[in-house]
């Protein structure tokens, strides 16, 4: 896991959850962090912009998306994969 990808994703998630990044763990879920659907969409858009990637995400059915949002660690792994595919 790339430290910079991890740190940037955690910072984005923390901003949307209005928490300190130190409160975010790799096992944290949306529910744990109190992130609603609007904040989730904003986080996805911020991640896309930060890394210059396109995330296969369906805002209407986020759990049905090809982008794993089950935990912060899963999001980081998915972002790393998309960044690697872009390179």
UniProtKB/TrEMBL annotation:
SUPFAM superfamilies in the record: ACP-like
Key words, A-Z: Phosphopantetheine, Phosphoprotein
PANTHER family per record: ACYL CARRIER PROTEIN (PTHR20863), CARRIER DOMAIN-CONTAINING PROTEIN (PTHR20863:SF76)
UniProt domain Carrier: residue ranges: 3-83
One Pfam family here: PP-binding
Protein name: Acyl carrier protein
Lineage: Bacteria, Pseudomonadati, Pseudomonadota, Alphaproteobacteria, Rhodobacterales
Keyword Phosphoprotein carried by entry: yes
Organism: Paracoccus niistensis
PROSITE patterns, A to Z: CARRIER
